[in-house]
Specification:
heterodimer, A: 250 residues, alpha+beta, Ubiquitin-like (UB roll), Fumarate Reductase Iron-sulfur Protein, Chain B, domain 2, 2 domains, five-stranded mixed beta sheet, two-stranded antiparallel sheet, 9 helices, 7 strands, 13% strand, B: 111 residues, mainly alpha, 4 helices, globular
Chain lengths: 250, 111
């Protein structure tokens, strides 16, 4: 079966503005068409049509998040999106929104990492321990965090969030989801992390559009994490209003 | 770098395909923002043209939809499951339509 692809092409080093290139490729001749993915199609285009086409991939198992693209105006992983699930018309492939383009479909992930750094994305233990801490899967804490620790940092949520366009300094759903996983973890010394995300470039920039939740290829909900953080801040502020509260944090 | 500047893709609001792919949560947010602006407009009209039925109806229309979607936001803020957001959107749109019908037909509005 012959498929038509409209692929975003742009080399910022050489060109002044992007353009769209159309490719027509036959898929399913040697492989089972039911299993052909968008990434397979990209390989075929690169091998048979244009060797200069740039795209990123690594694991091919929807585990690394390298191949995230905007496929028919919706974010998704090229290795996970099956051709049979796409519409019969031309298939549009674009790089992720709100992330600098390196070339064609490849984006510069340093901007994502810089956003993550704003909220100290690493585990800081409350007390040093050589033994693993036991947290039961049935514990309330583990259930609150849920699957949100499974984020593969593909950047789909950052691309789908329209607030990233209006506020380039916004930490974004990916960073806030990471902050949620750490803040909700009782083993972590949260420190100033909650205060860091509690401003106009943090959780209050989320306007609850649910775009991040709808496009996440791992079916996580950064919005849920952001609302958890909002409630944490709310209760912290309520507690600080208590005139009978004593202690050094008052 | 293009012309010494980073180049990144943004959503193009003039592209019809973008609007076809817009998801329910985004529509809910857009409806509420647009209705907020319309409330200001119709409230302004209401001050200068009091007791005009079309103005009253339009004001009531945008207020009921804005308030209804506001309750949806409030529930999710308070911890309602994010998985229910699409269902809540439809439910609260229906509640707004019912509320509009009830208020307009059964409550005295000075008309």
């Amino acid at each position: 079966m012959v498929y038509t692809f409209k692929i975003f092409r742009f080399d910022p080093q050489k060109e002044t503005k992007p353009y769209e290139q159309t490719f027509r490729v036959a898929l399913g001749e040697t492989e089972d068409i039911e299993k052909v993915t968008v990434l397979d199609a990209l390989f075929k285009i690169q091998q048979t049509e244009d060797k200069s086409l740039s795209f990123r991939y690594c694991c091919r198992l929807a585990m690394c998040g390298s191949c995230a693209l905007v496929i028919n105006e919706r974010e998704g992983l090229a290795c996970k999106t099956l051709m049979r699930d796409l519409t019969s018309g031309p298939i549009s492939l674009k790089p992720l929104n709100h992330i600098p383009v390196v070339k064609d479909l490849t984006v510069d992930l340093r901007s994502l990492i810089a956003r993550l750094r704003k909220m100290e994305p690493y585990f800081i233990p409350k007390s040093p321990s050589t033994e693993p801490v036991k947290i039961k899967p049935t514990s309330k804490e583990r259930q609150v965090i849920g699957l949100n620790t499974e984020c593969i940092a593909c950047g789909s949520c950052v691309s789908a969030c329209t607030m990233m366009h209006w506020d380039p300094d916004y930490i974004g759903p990916m960073g806030l989801n990471r902050a949620f996983c750490l803040i909700a973890d009782s083993r972590d010394l949260t420190g100033e992390r909650l205060e860091r995300v509690a401003d106009e470039n943090g959780i209050y920039r989320c306007h609850m559009e649910f775009n991040c939740t709808d496009v996440c290829p791992k079916h996580l909900s950064p919005t849920r994490g952001i609302h958890y953080l909002k409630r944490q801040i709310f209760w912290q502020e309520i507690k600080s209003l208590n005139p009978f509260r004593t202690g050094k944090n008052r | 770098m293009a012309n010494g500047r980073e180049w990144m893709l943004n959503r193009d609001a003039t592209d019809a395909q973008i609007w076809r792919k817009t998801l329910p949560g985004m529509w809910a947010w857009l409806f509420q923002r647009v209705s907020a602006i319309l409330i200001l407009l119709f409230l302004f009209l209401h001050f200068f043209l009091p007791y005009r039925r079309p103005v009253q109806f339009l004001l009531l229309f945008v207020v009921t939809f804005h308030a209804s979607l506001g309750i949806r936001v409030f529930l999710i803020d308070l911890g309602a499951s994010v998985k229910s957001q699409k269902i809540l959107f439809i439910v609260f749109l229906l509640l707004a339509a019912f509320g509009l019908f009830f208020i307009w037909n059964y409550l005295p509005l000075g008309g």
